[in-house]
Automatic annotation (TrEMBL):
Pathway(s) served: Amino-acid biosynthesis; L-methionine biosynthesis via salvage pathway; L-methionine from S-methyl-5-thio-alpha-D-ribose 1-phosphate: step 4/6
Gene: mtnX
Protein name: 2-hydroxy-3-keto-5-methylthiopentenyl-1-phosphate phosphatase
Positions of transmembrane segments: none
Keywords (A to Z) from UniProt: Amino-acid biosynthesis, Hydrolase, Methionine biosynthesis
Functional description taken from the UniProt entry: Dephosphorylates 2-hydroxy-3-keto-5-methylthiopentenyl-1-phosphate (HK-MTPenyl-1-P) yielding 1,2-dihydroxy-3-keto-5-methylthiopentene (DHK-MTPene).
Record-linked Pfam families: HAD
GO biological process terms, semicolon-separated: L-methionine salvage from methylthioadenosine; L-serine biosynthetic process
The family this protein is said to belong to: Belongs to the HAD-like hydrolase superfamily. SerB family.
Enzyme type, top EC level: hydrolase
Known catalytic reactions: 2-hydroxy-5-methylsulfanyl-3-oxopent-1-enyl phosphate + H2O = 1,2-dihydroxy-5-(methylsulfanyl)pent-1-en-3-one + phosphate
The organism's taxonomic lineage, starting at the top: Bacteria, Bacillati, Bacillota, Bacilli, Bacillales
Any one GO CC term of the record: cytoplasm
Gene Ontology terms for molecular function: 2-hydroxy-3-keto-5-methylthiopentenyl-1-phosphate phosphatase activity; L-phosphoserine phosphatase activity; magnesium ion binding
């Protein structure tokens, strides 16, 4: 790790910026017929994340757009310290990017109060013009990733060369793991911590964003950042 690199942060949304996974919350609350089998196939990796998420939302009629959006916005909780963390990064001149497997119709409204530039938010889209909800994939896997991620964190990170950037990834689940393997430093929760421990990926477990501020301050004082 070299202190002359520019630190840069790539942060997951569901279960990371928010306390819970909003896609899971939608499925548990509305329980569309057939969703349990799709969820299990996705978790078991019988189907890709992209295929699984697309199939889940295709179970909903587009007419439920407002109902689903209202549900997510009303139940989502932003993780403690997130606003302070953004202020900290700004004070240190560290760029911050949201790299989310979530959907724009709930990701962007929930992030709006924090003033994150539009071009720093990477997530999937949704098309409500048909009979059922269609998920769109503006940031698919490119060269170097064939996991059908949907929103590919590896592809986003590739635009920031490891020769020039000290790449920090923050996440909580297996959907963050391919990006975690490319990062110089990982702040992890839940399933991502387990995966990092299993394969020896450099990581620091965290509970809230205050923990990350504290650790980054420590690493800065040590010349790591």
């Amino acid at each position: 790790m070299r202190s002359d690199k520019q630190p840069i942060v790539f942060c997951d949304f569901d279960g990371t910026i928010t306390d819970n996974d909003n896609i899971v919350a939608i499925m548990k609350h509305f329980k569309p017929e057939g969703v349990d089998d799709i969820i299990q196939d996705t978790l078991d990796r019988n189907i890709s994340i992209r295929e699984g998420v697309g199939a889940m939302f295709a179970l909903f009629p587009s007419s439920q757009q407002e109902e689903i959006t209202s549900f997510v916005i009303n139940q989502a909780v932003i993780r403690a310290g997130f606003g302070e963390y953004l202020d900290y990064l700004k004070s240190q001149g560290i760029p911050f990017y949201v790299t989310s497997g979530g959907i724009d119709f709930f990701v962007k409204p929930l992030l709006e109060p924090f003033g994150i530039p539009e071009d720093h938010i990477f997530c999937n889209g949704a098309d409500f013009s048909g009979d059922t909800i269609e998920i769109t994939w503006p940031h698919p896997c490119g060269e170097g990733c064939s996991n059908e991620c949907g929103m590919c964190k590896v592809t986003v990170m590739k635009d920031f060369s490891p020769d020039d950037y000290f790449r920090i990834l923050i996440g909580d689940s297996i959907t963050d793991f391919e990006g975690a393997k490319k990062a110089d430093l990982v702040y992890s929760r839940a399933a991502l911590t387990e995966q990092c421990e299993k394969l020896g990926v450099n990581h620091v477990p965290f509970h809230n964003f205050h923990d990350i501020i504290q650790d980054m301050n420590l690493k800065s004082s040590q010349g790591v950042l």
